[in-house]
Amino acid sequence: MDTIWAPWRIQYIEAKKDDGCIFCEKPKQNRDKKNYILYRAKTSFVIMNIYPYISGHLMVAPYRHVAKLSALDEEEVGEIMKVVSECTKVLEEVMTPQGFNIGANLGKVAGAGIEEHLHVHIVPRWERDTNFMPVISDTRVIPEALDSTYDKLLPVFQRLD
Using one digit for the tens of pLDDT, what is the confidence trace for 126-158? Predict the structure, then answer.
């Protein structure tokens, strides 16, 4: 058996599990670095996925607790799409991906891990960014620590205001 050393996982294992919605609770805490919040707009915000598909995996969520696109008002829809677009620009500048996967998993059967609060995923992609690990061992290899990615992206997001 192969062993993958991932000492940062102990924080997750030992952490108290929240019963609330992370997309509602994290912005209220005003601990953006600890919560990996990179940008706050008027009706939505950008947060890093702490269980990323790959480095730079971001999410845009409205502050308002809604599960469906149809529940968003016109301002929220417009702003979320604008922020998603800005995320791609920031990622292009900092991480130079060759493409993106962008989408929302609406409902449990669609793959939503947090189905009660709508959020849009922005996943940067590079040619050959996957390897044999997901195929043979259901394991992803994330090449950069979350804190490092946050520190690289934050200065560029700060320029958006």
Answer: 886 664 444 444 555 566 789 999 999 999 999
* pTM (predicted TM-score): 0.83
Q: Tell me the C-alpha distance between 154 and 24, whole Å.
A: 21
119 is catalytic: yes
Distances (CA, A) of 12 to 8, 108, 113: 8, 23, 16
Which of 57, 65, 117, 119 is an active site residue? 119
In whole angstroms, give the CA distance from residue 85 to residue 97.
14
Domain with residue 32: its CATH number is 3.30.428.10
Give the total number of structural domains in the chain: 1
In terms of residue numbers, what domain contains 91?
Answer: 19-158
